[in-house]
Design goal:
The complex is a heterodimer. Chain A is mainly α. Chain A has 7 helices and 1 strand. Chain B is of the alpha+beta class. Classes of the chains: A mainly alpha, B alpha+beta.
């Protein structure tokens, strides 16, 4: 039970996992802000300005390293913690799972895995195209994220997958937000009820914000 | 009342166990769960069969010896009671009751429903105490303790170390137990002196023994017969983080002024 990750105690791992998660949560807000610009009726002008800023600003370039680091740490530690958890009960119960628990907390690895698969698709559609690893759709420049996004959302199949993914993102966030505070030891009789409320609100509003865009293309276009 | 019992039978630590079904009739609804098992065992002994081995001692809910994972709940379906305080009226006539031992890697089965909970003793030995030399009784008000702190400490100290938190947790995590033991000492001035070393040593031992990580599901709190709150886990995380980040390097003692 020692060596490598292994090197860190269970609580240290959880604290790093929580901090990385909270960082990703703040990033999600920035991402949503930019995505919502897709809904403006300006032919993507403002959206492309924002994309241009995000892809060229040197400070954002530095933040990008932290962002990928945050993803890597959150995913790798999440898996390590989960493997330890499975190992802690080699023989399972015949009748189990009747204890009163927070529902989504039991499925963090599963909702996390679904989000990871989508993240890979997302990279393949945008980030890898920008890097030149993946060819852009026919007739589009590799930086033309606006047209690429419009093209993706005009596919019914993609939009539906996107909507379903947002549901799983909501499930993941619902537990994640308040759980991160608990892991960091920030439990307080006055503030914890607010943190729980804010976490639930965040887990509904942010995925709903993202879902607006495919929903717009599915139902209104 | 009549019941069908499905009980885990395992000859010894090495043997492969299995569920055995028993029919039990004419049980009083006022019987405790353990008395019901006593009746079953009497019948088994009369038939010349091996009785079911299970842990029990005080039978009044204070010693933490009884265990049993009953129909998916540690200590059965009732809230805030140990198995010995669970009564058969909590079940319906004709129910099938599945009885299993605690399942966790650090709690190996010794026989039938008895598991070895020595892992908890090892965690306590790692630091769950105060090392003071006993002397004269100090004046009652020499050390002032706020009532709130004393109350929170007492709540945490209500932990009887039964292991229901580990049994209930999907990760077999011992965080609630360790958090209760860390908290009840860390909240009082006498315990604060060694708080930093204590939390680190106890968590190290907990990890070493192979308990899982806490994923804040809250199952432990829901099943704890003493209703220990998971705010204790947050307190332990806080104590641990503070100890890791804030503690100085260990000073080498000069051995008395030289």
């Amino acid at each position: 039970m020692s060596s490598l990750a292994l090197f860190y105690s269970s609580i240290t791992k959880k604290i790093i996992l929580a901090l990385a998660g909270l960082f990703l949560i703040t990033f999600l807000l920035v991402h949503l802000g930019i995505n919502l610009l897709l809904l403006l009726n300006d032919g993507g002008a403002l959206y492309m300005t924002a994309v241009g800023f995000m892809t060229t600003n040197p400070l954002i370039k530095i933040m990008e390293v932290f962002l990928f680091g945050g993803f890597a740490i959150h995913i790798i530690l999440g898996i390590i913690v989960q493997v330890y958890n499975w190992m802690a009960r080699p023989v399972r119960y015949k009748v189990e799972g009747y204890s009163h628990t927070s529902f989504f907390s039991k499925y963090m690895i599963h909702t996390g895995a679904i989000i990871f698969v989508f993240l890979m698709i997302h990279f393949n559609n945008f980030y890898f195209v920008k890097l030149g690893w993946v060819a852009p759709p026919a007739g589009l420049e590799k930086e033309d994220f606006y047209q690429m996004a419009i093209l993706l959302f005009s596919s019914r199949f993609y939009s539906i997958i996107y909507l379903i993914l947002m549901l799983f993102l909501a499930f993941h966030l619902n537990h994640a937000f308040q759980s991160a505070f608990q892991t960091l030891g920030l439990s307080h009789t006055k503030y914890t009820p607010f943190i729980k409320f804010a976490g639930t609100a965040y887990s509904i509003i942010v995925p709903l914000g993202f879902a607006c865009i495919p929903a717009y293309y599915l139902f209104l276009k | 009342m009549n019941f069908t019992l499905k009980i885990w039978r395992q000859k010894n630590a090495k043997a492969k166990g299995k569920f055995v079904t028993y029919k039990l009739n004419d049980i009083s609804s006022n019987c405790s769960f353990l008395e019901m098992l006593d009746i079953l065992n009497e019948q088994l002994v009369l038939k010349g069969d091996e009785p079911v081995a299970f842990d029990h001692d005080c039978r009044e809910g204070i010693c933490g010896t009884c265990s049993l994972y009953i129909n998916g709940h540690p200590h059965g379906p009732d809230t805030a009671v140990t198995t010995c305080q669970l009564h058969m009226r909590k079940f319906r006539d004709g129910d099938t009751i599945v009885v299993e031992p605690w399942r966790a890697k650090p709690f190996p089965v010794i026989k039938d429903l008895i598991v070895n909970r020595n892992a908890f003793d090892q965690i306590i030995q790692a630091g769950g105490f105060i090392s003071v030399n006993t002397g004269g009784i100090p004046d009652a008000n020499a050390i002032l303790i706020p009532k709130e702190d004393a109350d929170y400490s007492m709540d945490a100290a209500a932990c009887i170390g039964c292991g229901a938190c580990v049994a209930a947790c999907k990760n077999a995590s011992a965080m609630l137990f360790v958090a209760a033991k860390v908290s009840h000492l860390a909240l009082l001035p006498q315990g604060k002196a060694e708080a930093s070393d204590r939390v680190q040593a106890m968590v190290r031992k907990m990890d070493e023994l192979g308990f899982g990580n806490c994923t804040n599901t809250g199952a432990c709190e829901a099943e704890c017969p003493k209703q220990i709150s998971i705010t204790n886990i947050a307190r332990m995380n806080r104590e641990f983080l503070g100890a890791k980040v804030g503690s100085q390097k260990k000073r080498v003692s000069s051995g008395g002024g030289f």
